[in-house]
TrEMBL record:
MF (Gene Ontology): metal ion binding; phosphoglycolate phosphatase activity
Keywords: Carbohydrate metabolism, Hydrolase, Magnesium, Metal-binding
Record-linked Gene3D superfamilies: HAD superfamily/HAD-like, Putative phosphatase, domain 2
Source organism (scientific name): Alginatibacterium sediminis
GO BP annotations listed: DNA repair
GO-annotated cellular components: cytosol
The name this protein goes by in its record: HAD family hydrolase
InterPro entries: HAD-like_hydrolase_sf (IPR050155), HAD-like_sf (IPR036412), HAD-SF_hydro_IA (IPR006439), HAD_2 (IPR041492), HAD_sf (IPR023214), PGP-like_dom2 (IPR023198)
Sections of the chain in a coiled coil: none
Length: 225
């Protein structure tokens, strides 16, 4: 029987691409480069600030100090975390059902903790999140399984009785390496090429609205007790 659920954040629970795009375009505009589109930002958001900057600057990126550009992007983003970011359809209902059913859940993301923590504070549905680990919270980050082990231990759940939901290859790899049930969120930030790849998840969902039905089917016994 499953005992807990852990989630990735960007591209899984929250659509953060619009605000990440705005931060990238702020940097691009500052250096007289054309902005990137939302569609492109959605494909690259899982690759972080560097992925967005590489797309925007192209081959000209070598003329700049990349760490400095990255910090400029993150500084702007930190001040504009939740302007256009919103939950994917059905996610809030799924989190509410987990809360009402007494099922432990948390967030394990590679987003730096100093960005992830205040971002969650903007959304009341995260008030019941029982653990948040950022990409810099531990010595290792995904695809290493360490963050998932630590989160499961905190929630007093065996990894083999836990689900990890994410939209990136590193999420599925981390879940599999931790011996968790890996659930691939195809509504997230996957490029057309990535959608054709087989990362060997235990299950794939195409729509975020399907998540609550999936969880109910795997936690029916728990919810009934």
């Amino acid at each position: 029987m499953m005992r807990c659920v852990l989630f990735d954040l960007d591209g899984t629970l929250l659509d953060t691409a619009p605000d990440l795009m705005a931060a990238a375009n702020h940097v691009l505009q500052d250096h007289s480069f054309d902005p990137i589109s939302l569609a492109k930002a959605q494909q690259l958001a899982s690759h972080g600030a560097v992925g967005l900057l590489n797309e925007g600057f192209g081959s000209d990126i070598t003329r700049f100090n990349l760490p400095q550009l990255r910090q400029q992007l993150l500084d702007y983003y930190a001040q504009n975390l939740a302007i256009h970011t919103q939950f994917y359809p059905g996610i809030e209902a799924a989190l509410q059902w987990l809360n009402e059913s007494g099922i432990a859940w948390g967030v394990v993301t590679n987003k730096p903790f100093y960005l992830a923590d205040p971002l969650l504070d903007h959304y009341p549905s995260f008030a019941s999140c029982q653990i948040l680990l950022g990409g810099d919270s531990l010595e290792q980050k995904k695809p290493h399984p360490m963050p998932l082990y630590v989160a499961c231990e905190h929630l007093q759940a065996n990894p083999s009785e836990s689900i990890y939901v994410g939209d990136a290859q590193r999420d599925i790899e981390a879940g599999n390496r931790a011996d968790m049930f890996s659930l691939q969120a195809n509504w997230g930030y996957l490029s057309p090429l990535e959608r054709q790849q087989n990362w060997e998840p235990d299950h794939v969902l195409e729509l975020s609205s399907q998540l609550i039905h999936f969880l109910k089917s795997h936690f029916d016994n728990h919810a009934a007790t």
